[in-house]
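Hey L., structure's done. Input below.
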Amino acid sequence: MKNYKVLLIVLGVVLVLSLTGNIWLIRKNKSSPLTGSVGSSLIKTVSAKEIYPMFICPCCGKPLDPKKICCGMAKEMIDYIDSLVAKNLSEKEIILSFVKKYGLNTFADKNKQKEFREELVKTAPTDRPIISLRPETFDFGNVSQKGGVVTTFFELKNEGKKDLVIERLDTSCGCTSAAIVFNGEEGPRFAMAGHGIKNPKNWKLIIPPGESAQLKVYYDPNVHKDFRGPAIREIYVYSNDPIDFEKKVQIELNQVD
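Output:
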């Protein structure tokens, strides 16, 4: 009888521990901003139609729609979503893969963008590479269409504890291009992808911890010769920084004759 009672007690303890573990897992999945409505996606897949409207085309700023493709970049992004869905990935995995390739700024819902970044901050290692770009904005003032190309520099630094690896740049318009100057040498120039512009491939720059470089930005007013008035253009630097893997700066100007 004594052994029987001991067995009952042991079984009771095991049951309580099992229930406690299940409750903790449920609460953990519900509380994660990365999952949100995605919590259940850890055990089920989603359709591409559910993913498209979560992101915007960098060209027109409208949600992705395979029936209304405005540019080559939009098509590339849609095709990439299709390829991820075909792998039967969860919604969370698809979102993470997409933003690591195209950046957090492609989120249509800026609150979702903020939540996603906060989750990345929580999970990022302390000894990570950290990209720093200053200033965040540069104002050219009046830019003469007749005067041709103007340039400026942003200071780029690795403030982390591991090598910062940069593999590509991008811009929000073909009139704006950028390159990185490191140790006195200027790298290849990148511009807005998906509009007939062929950006460099198989390029990589490694910036050790504590070292700096420069992001050189070009603006060509003759790409849009007839344009007059104020404009804002964005430049993106993609790196292995686990939080700011897409770092953005911008230029402002007023195009005149």
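Residues 131-256 form a domain with the Immunoglobulin-like fold (CATH 2.60.40.10). The chain has two domains: 37-123, 131-256.

-- N.
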